[in-house]
Structures are given as structure tokens and as C-alpha cells.
Write the C-alpha cells for this entry.
Amino acid sequence: MKIKKVHIDGFGKWHDQDFDFIANPQIIYGPNEAGKTTLMAFLVSVLFGFADGRGKNRFAQYIPKTTSSYGGSVLVEINGHDYLIKRQRGRNGGKVSVTDSQGRQGGEQELKQLLGPMDRSLYQALFSFGQRDLTAIDELNRDEWQQHLQQLGAVGSAQWDQLIDQYQKQADHLYKPRGRKWPLNQDLHQYADLTDKINRARGKFHRYQDLQADLKTNKEKLRQAQAELQKQQPRLQKLEHLQQLWPVYHEWQSSHQTRPLADYLADQQVTTAQELQVREKELRRQQQVYQQRLARIDHQSPQATKHSPQSMPELQRLKEQAVELQAEEALQRRQQTQANQWQQELTRIKTRYHHPLPAPLTPQEKAELARLLNVQPLSRANTNQSNGDPSRAAMIGIIGGFVLFIIGLLANATFITAIGAIAAFATVMYLYYQRQGSHSAPVTTDSQAIMAFGQKHGLQDFPPDQWLLIQGDLQRNVELVAQLQTAKQDQQRYDHQLAIFNQQLPPALQNLTLAAVRTKLDDLLEQGQQARQDIQANTREKTTIANNLAQLNQDYSKIHQQKLAIYQQAGVHDDNQFTQYLANRSAAQSQALASDAYGQQLTAEDRQALAAYANRDELMTALAKTRHQLDQLNLTISHTHEEIQKDKVEIDSLVEDGTLSNLEQERANLAAKIWHEVQEWLRYQLAIQWVNKALAGASADRYPAIIRQAEQYFALLTAHRYSQIRLTADGVKVVRRDQEVFLVEELSQGTAEQLYIALRLGFVTVMSDQANFPVIIDDGFVNFDNVRRQRMLALLEKIAEKNQVIYFTADDRIKDLDVKILDLQALKRE
């Protein structure tokens, strides 16, 4: 099952809200009170029903306070088909409807068919967990793990438990050990009463005394025959025993001597050589184990040296450059803002004049222009007197405005900069209009010299009386152009530094922002530190293994020399020749002992008994005669048994009336009824035993697959520090890479949480072919650092290949990772 879309009409704080679950794994972020728990409760409630409101469940209903609507819908995909599951306010968990892609609608029954044996409690136990589950991991014992895994392994075990209860109730309605009213109990009591009546009726036979006398005679005859049989049977057994010993006796008579043994190694030397062989093989095995461990360490070394100690200073230098560039970036942003203001001021100056601006005049050139414009001193003096010497006041205004403008730029105060610019501009305009007024008086100037001066300095496009007035704007124009050029050069220098910095970065970091690069560099430094620790651990382990191997080689050489010394005494050179030597030694010893074996099988009594017969034929004749006597005795005993049975049958059948026969028939009928009831009761009991064994088998066959899958996930989460998970009588244990074994109680909180997650997700993976439901995780990785969180996200992506994964979190660090998230803060809420 995969959840594709969600629409909430009203549920808790959510109303008229849509959610699209596009990504897998789907990460949903939101701080506290953002509605994560409400959304998670809504998903479970639509599938399995709203809470009934009784007891503590009244807080789990999430009835909205701002709208009358209660419920919503979930669009799910099951086996390639879409189904819209809609649940609204109603009894028994709410009114539910199911609509398929063809528009066909159904209700609760159709939803149960889609969910199969899954219910709320089973779903929350299998496919949903959070930080509370991880915190309680150290409280679980082995029995709780075993029961939990068995319930997980046998999907639908609740229906089997109900069937067991049903069979037990039906069996109890037939018979209970201490009951009286149940059918089988009553029939057994009645059968005992009938048996007592039959025993009393047997004393009523007419010929009881005569038959008892015959019975006594036959029993005496039987006793005598059985006594004679017991006397003859030992003789027959003795003769049969002598018959079996005759070949041995014959060989013993033929030869009493044994072959002398050759001069071989002593038994203690053989035992020592064999012990040395075993110790030598064990040392070779230990050498192979250590060599394999060295190979595994060497194989893992390239991964551990991905960030070698030599690259750590380079990463640290890049991080320091990133910090410096971040500061330079902030300065460039402020300077760009200032450059924009300079550009605007430059545009205003150019807009004020409709012609290209020439270069400003030097002080000498200004003095020369003033001299040319003041050819008639009297007129100039009159003008100055009539205007109250405005040039002095205008110069003060221009300088004051320029000073304010510079102070505003340096302090990055736009308001002061604007005031300075306005003051300077207003002063210039005032002086301009004063000069315009003075033009009304006729002034006599040297026109040709002035025009030549204007042509020389590019002022011919402006009125001569403005040449001195516009010098301030011309000077400001040059200053602004220089400042903009300096800002551009600073920006180019910063861009060049940034480009060089990006070239030094790894390819994966070259297109990121400086903040992201700094974060990634922090992660790489942390990973490098971890890799360096791993390298140190591997180095220590390799040193220990090398020392152990050296000791093993020394022990092996010593034992090998001791073994060869023994081989040399036996005249052999290797293990194969020694094996052949032992075979020859054993054969020689067997041949030497064969002659004595015959004599050892014969006791003194056996030899005396066999000596009574001249040959084997005489022994066989005595044996045949004894067998014939025993056959006759067995025939007599058989005939006597038949006579006794006839007497007993006649005694049982001869009664004065038919009461005994009726009682026998009634008891036989009752016995048949009891047999039928017993069979029925046993059938229920056997069915209960079969269901229990079936449940155990259904779960046990998944244990190995769950544990294997969990071991892979646990190794991934712990960077392969732990390789095995074991369920033992002492509890759940894990095996570290160096073969050290730990109980769950001995693990750190973070590692225990990783073990719990690996087991839960291992089960989900194994069971995905039978029960494929979304995996919901509620802030399950709060205690994880960035490295463990990245490993966990990688594991969730692997789980997402078979199951949909929905991860709710309030940890804003998830935003720093390169993953897609659904931010609840960005959604519209009322």
C-alpha cells in the first residue's frame, strides 16, 4: 500500500487541507504544535477507524473546534490500482466508503478486504514507531523479543488465537477433569456402575461349581507344563550357546599361540603424535582466521582512508577561506548597495546636462576662466554688491552638502547621504538663478578668448556664465566614475577569489552556496575525524593480529618439530605416511591378538561343556532332541489354555436369567458412545496442538531472514562496527567487528536505538511480500548526529524500494541535508 494524497475536511487543527505525498521517503517537517501528530493520527484513523472517545481515547478523537466537518479522505495505491478511502463522522469508528478507479463504491467490508488481517494495534506494532519506543528498548527482555517476533512472523495470528479459544470451548463442553454435568463425565460414571452390576451377576451361573473344578484341574496341568518348560529352556539356551561357540572352540583347539608383535611405537607416543596433529591443525586454523581478519581490514582500509589525515588540513584551510569569503560576501553586498546609490547620483548629474560632460578644470584653469569672465571689474563688482556676494555663500553650501554626502556614504546612512546631495544641488541651483538674474545687466567680455577657452576645455556646449558653476558637478562626476570603477574592481577581485576557491573544492561542492559549502566542510571534517579514528583502530587491531600471528608461527614451528621427531622414530615423514603407519600397526596388533581372542571368548565352564561332545554332530543331535521336547510342552500348554478359556466362557454364559447379557449389551453400547465422545474431544485437542505448532512454524521460518536483514541494516547504521545479532537464553546480543559480544543493556542509548530500528525495519523488509504497508516514523532519530542521520536517511531510501516511508520530525537540522521535505509551516492553516 502507498499513500498518494490526503485531504482533511476537519481533524484537530487541520481543516480543508490537502497533502501530496510525492517523495519516497516522504519527510514531513514541523516544529512543536505544527500538526505532525494530528496528521499522523488522521492517516491511521482513516484506515482503521476514529477513536471511540471512551476513557483516554477522548483525547485521541481530534474533533475540530473551528469547523463542523470531521473526517477526510486518503488516496492509496494497492497492487497498481488506486482507491479513495473516505471516512466521516459516524458510529463504530466513523462512516467509511471506498471508491476504486472505475468509480465502484463499497464500504467497511471492502476496506477490510484491502487491509487483509491488518488492524490498528497490529499496524502500530509492526509499521509505526517513534522516540518513545526507542527510549524503552533497554527494558525489553528475551521473552518479550521472542513473543514480539512470533507475533510479527505469523501475520493474522489473532484469528488463529480465536480459533484455538473456540476449539477449547467446544472440547470443554464434552469433558472436564473435575466436571460432573458434561456428557463424557456422565457416561464414564454410568459405565462404572454397569461394570459393578455385571460383576455381581456373574455369581448366578448353574454349573459354576463343576466348571470351577475343571478349571482348577486344567490350571494345575498348565502349571506343571510351564514348570517343565522353564526347566528345559535353560538347557536349550545352553546347547544353542555351545553351538555358537563350537567354531571358536575348534580354532582354540587348533592353535593356542599368537604371533609376536613387531617393534612399534609405544601407545603413549602414538597418542602424543595424534595430539600434536590436532594442535597443529588448530594453529593452522587460527592462522587462517587472523589472515582473513587482516584481509578484511585491508579491504576496508580504502573506504576508511577516503578522508586521510593528510587531507584534513586542506579541508580546514578551505573552511577558513569559506568563512573569510562569507565576510567578504557581506561587504560586497553593502558596497553593491552603495554603488547603486552612486550610479543613481551619476545618472542624475548626466540627466541635468544634455551634453557630454567634459573634464573638470584645474585651479589654474579656473583662475584663468575667472579672469576672462571679469574683464570689466566695475560691472563685476556692482554685480557682486547687488547680489550680496552669493558665490561665497554658494561655495559654503556646496562644500557642506558634499561633506554630508561623504559622511552618509562612510556611515552607510542613506538619509544623511540624501540630505547632503539635496543641499549641494539646491545651492548650485540658487547660484544658477542668481547668475541668470545678473545677465540682465550688460557685461562687456572678451568673447573670442572665452570661446577659445571653451573650445579648448570642451565647454562650448554650455553657457559661459555656467562654466564655473558646473565645475562642482564635473568634479563629482569624475569622483563617482572613479568610485564605481573601484567598486567594480573590488567585485571582480571577489569573484576571482570565489572562482579560485570553487576550483579548490571537491566537484560535489562547487555549485553550492558558501553557507552550504561551510556546512558540508564541517560534515567532511567530522567524517574525516571518524575515519582517522577508524584507521587508528584498524592499525591497533593489525598490530595485535601481527603479534598473535608471530606467536602462533612460533608455537606451530615448535609443535611441528616435536611431531617430526616422533615420525622419525616410526620411519615416516608426513601425516599421510603416519596414517598408513597407524593402519599397519593396528592390523598387526589385530592379527597378533586374533589367536588370544578365541581363548578369551571361552570360559572354563564352556571348555568343560564342549569337551563332553566328541564332535559337532553329537552336539547338534542333543540340541534337536531338546527342541522337540520343548515343542511338545508348548503344544500341551496351548491346549490347556484353550480348555481354560472354554471353561471361563461357559461360566460367563451360563446364568439363571438374561440379566447379565442385557447388562453386557448395555455396557457395550455405552462403551461405543464413550469412544465416539473421546474421539470428538481428542479431535479438538489435536486441532489446538496443530494450530499452536503451525503458528510456531509460521513465525520460526522467518526468524533467520529477519535477523539476516536486520544484521545488514545494523551494520550500515553503525558503519560496520557490529556484524551479527543473536537471540540467546541470556537475551539479545550483538557481535562487534572484533568478535566482542555485548548484551543490549551494555550498549549506548544511540546504538541500542539503532539495533531496535534495524530489527523493526528488517521485519518490514522480510514481510513486505505479504504485508506491504507504509512505514510511519515519529521523530525516531532525535539522538542521532549528522553522520548517523545521513546513514539513517540512506537506510530509509533502501527501505523505500519496497515500502512507502513517512518520517515526521521537529528537528530543523533536517533542512541542512540534501533531501526533499514537506514543511508544515508553509501550509495554509486556520
